[in-house]
Amino acid sequence: MIGFIIRRLGQAVVVTLGVVTITFLLLHMLPGSLARDIIGNRATPQAVAAFNREYGLNRSIWYQYGVFIDKLLHGNLGYSFVANRTVDSLVASELPRDLVLGGLSLVFALAIAIPVGVAQAVRRNGLVDYAGTGFSFLLYSMPQYAVALILIQLLAITFHIFPAEAPQSPSTLGLFAHPSGLVLPVASLTLVTFAQFSRYMRSSAIDTLAQDYMRTARAKGLPERLVLWRHLLRNSLIAVITLVGLSIPYIITGTLIIEQVFNFPGLGLEYFTATLRDDYPVMLGVTVLVGMITVVGNLVADIGYALLDPRIRY
């Protein structure tokens, strides 16, 4: 197990370096000038040259890449001239709110999708299966903003049960001071994520039910509850683990549309604003962060495989 994790860690380091390199090169290939964006289009050539010289932008791209890697190894994601603050402080202030929104939706989606997927597989081609499949297809085919707008119309405007706007507290803990404001944003993300998880869980559970060890367990006279819990659920979770690992970066990037609809302050909205303002340091820092989190998510999924099925570690 330790050797398995070490090999996966080595692969994660290589992939992370590749993500950082490609992101850095692509952003530096974009048209425009950072100096012009910061000090204005009317700046004199002398002012632009002075700005580039002060921040090392007149050096070769490989020199700038080396400086960026050095800063990254020291936990420095760069400095936003537009926001007049470091990218680290921006991430530190906005990311926790995204973790609350995306994390809650992920937990709720799994808590609903796993039992629903198992129930659909056990009662395949029955009323439960058809109802679950239809509901999942309906949600899966709808964009996030459509689900969010429907919930706002029904639960906020028509019946006045929940507010249509998310809590506007500047702190993460302040979000829980008005928990009713979190219901609609979390529910919107949960419904879309649930549709994907439940389909994978149903398919995986159907494959598991066809295995010989399931028939053997039932032939031994084990209660159906133990068969489903010990044999079906554990072996069916492997496919879902893949989605969970890949959904970890979704906690940050997948909340962008929901943040806009519900006016929820978060890192996804800040990233979108940075693209409109040509704030390259924020774009680079957040993209690298998301890439690193994606690699970590895949590493977590690999470790989850080994824990659920010891054969995979070899």
Number of strands: 2
CATH topology of the largest domain, by name, is MetI-like fold
- What structural category arises from helix and sheet content? mainly alpha
CATH architecture of the largest domain: Orthogonal Bundle
Low-confidence blocks of residues: none
Helix content: over 70%
- Cα Rg: 24 Å
- Kindly provide the name of the CATH class of the largest domain: Mainly Alpha
* Helix count, DSSP H or I runs of 4 or more residues: 14
CATH homologous superfamily title of the largest domain: MetI-like
Number of domains: 2
Proportion of strand residues:
under 5%
Instruction: Report, as a whole number of angstroms, the end-to-end distance.
Output: 9 Å
Average pLDDT works out at 84
Strand order of the largest sheet: 1-2
Written as H for each helix and E for each strand, in order along the chain, the element string is HHHHEEHHHHHHHHHH
The biggest beta sheet is recorded as: 2 strands, antiparallel
What shape does the CA trace take?
A: globular
Structure report:
The chain has 314 residues and is mainly α. It has two domains: 32-76, no CATH class; 90-313, MetI-like (MetI-like fold), CATH 1.10.3720. The chain is built from 14 helices and two strands. It has helices at 2-28, 34-39, 45-54, 61-73, 87-122, 127-140, 144-158, 180-209, 212-219, 224-247, 250-253, 256-261, 267-276, 280-308, and strands spanning 79-80, 85-86. It has a two-stranded antiparallel ribbon with strand order 1-2. The longest helix has 36 residues, at 87-122. It is globular and about 85 Å long. The mean pLDDT is 84.
